[in-house]
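FORM 7B: Structural annotation worksheet

SECTION A. Query
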Amino acid sequence: MKNRFLQLSLLLYLLPLGLFAQVQLESALKEAANAPIIEDVPEAPNGFVFEKPTTNNKIKYKSSLKFNRTIYVDAKNGKDKNDGLSAKEAIKSLKKLGEMKLTFGDQVLLKGNQTHFGTIELINLNKGTKAQKKIHIGSYGKGKATIDFKGYPTGVMIQNTSNVIVTDLKMTGNGGPSNDKLMKRPQDKFKDQRYGIRIQSDETHKHSLMEDFVIYNVDIYDVFLLNSAETSRACRQWNMNDGAGWGWGVFGQVLKKGKGINNVTVKHVTVENVSQMGIRFKGSGKIDGSAPRNVNNVHIEYCTVYQSGGPGMQFNRCNNSHLKYSRITESGNRNDKRKWGRGSGMWTWGLQNFLFEYNVFEGAQGIADCCGAHIDFNCKNVVLQNNLSRYNAGGFIEILGLNYNCSYRYNISVNDGWRNMKDPAQAFWGKVGTPGCIVTVNGHNHKKQYEGPYQTYIYNNTIINTKAGNAPYKNPNVFNISTSNEGLVMMNNIFWIDDKTTTSWSMHRWKDGADYDAAFDFKISKAPKPNAKPEKGFDGSVAANIRPMNAEELAKVELNMRNNIYQLYNEKGKDKYTKVENALPKGYWDEKALGGNPDFVNEKGSDAADFVPKNTALISAGEKIEKLKSDKTEKGIYFGGLEVKTDFFGNPIKGNIIGAVVPNAKIRDWSKVMKENDKPLEN
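SECTION B. Predicted structure
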């Protein structure tokens, strides 16, 4: 979609706009299936070019572990008649390796700078008591070995087996012998999938609790089930499981009767150009985390996912975990017809206690969601802090229904939410989808009505959205909040957005005899309009008549929206459009909106350092974040409470500030911070 430049006029600006509710899958499938396929690849606004990942060819893993045997594999000079127990007596093939009955205490080393064809499988090795020894798979020589698992279901398959370390490898699996002749494991539940590294707890073994894994210094690239595809999936695939097959980077999953996965470290892993997700962990226990069949204690650091066809990372029923110092770039990428072409940089579902910090989420694409990082249904204590989010088509913040005590704080968002389904320059989205949305906080969930979210804290974010930063596109700039919220703090944020909003935003719907909407105008649906009919994209709901909310309903919402800075104001605090003292357009409801200019270093920039404010007096006018009255937790935020002591760059905060960065902040380059904290993996 090159060289399509239209004059930019922002249609909507920072308003609680529920005009387009979260489109439900059930009502969209039929229309999506008939939508035209658009082959164009979206270009990022502002001419922004995303940095490609850099990898290394070094063997970095250092181990003091003692192994019972070390098996060497040399694809060039080895012989399968050898015993493989020394480099001079290396075996030749992974097929021979599979015959050697790997077990705990074994180390497998593949000759570096060689390609080894096939797969490595560690299946049902767990015993009644936890093994004391590890299994290590890595490289030897002067560089990383490559596992080419083209045609095989996985590069490394780990099933009902604990204590596994995978290091210093390159892995690729691009297609198979033919599209209609795929190599499959008969026992696999999902036969149309291909995985770089697969960790699977399932019912095939009574000792299926899997614990203690390390994946370190591994590069996974070009993972696809099929050799080719005639038509693109982009623009009409609402349903991820469309039967055409997927390629994944790292996928840890507990199937229905598996007992769980615990203690996983994923560090310095790069996943590039896969048809679905880069890194995913998925449990199968109860959403509240009480059942053992979930994933627990996953720690991901210094990882990169680049141009995944689906979301970059996804976490489902994954508890007590951490994502840090990682970068997800151009998720939902559609440069290959075998890709899904839709996906947020990261999204969550059913998590308990998960912290995301010091990450970069950029360039997410697709017809729905596709935020930098968003919190889907059924989460508790999920916090995103100190992250950079930029040029994500779907938006910056998205917190949906049945979520509790979740927060976005001290993040910087640059020109997120630029997807506009009505913009002719964005025809590449096709005919089905939702507009971009800078901030979405609504109760959309798997139930019939909106519910929650509950006790949500959105504070001290710096949110930039400029005309120049969105060119050549017309940006909808939607702010979508629903009346189903119960407890919402929106304080000390900077909303630095160029254009005035409109007021044509409210949407009130009726379904199954009850209020069903995404509107936030202190009014709710009271009954369907006479002769109202269901409309496409609204999940069978109909237009509704409205009434004002009563005192009890207003109290239940418990909105605490105050002390945010808006570009709407001039230095004297007057609306530059209406010239009314302390005015905001109808529907804002900010109890104490602030004007003034933060005086950013470079408000036309794209890097976090560009948005260091220089207006000390204005930025220092922050207010203390108080716990909501409806919040029955001890501290409000699971990770450290509501008080934050350092800003986006790690500078100390004195008093209370507005936005994510202290005035005239010292810039701490994240790459240097990462190096300061990054140490070689040893055990």
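SECTION C. Observations
Residues 25-34 form the longest helix (10 residues). The radius of gyration is 26 Å.

SECTION D. Sign-off
Analyst initials: ____
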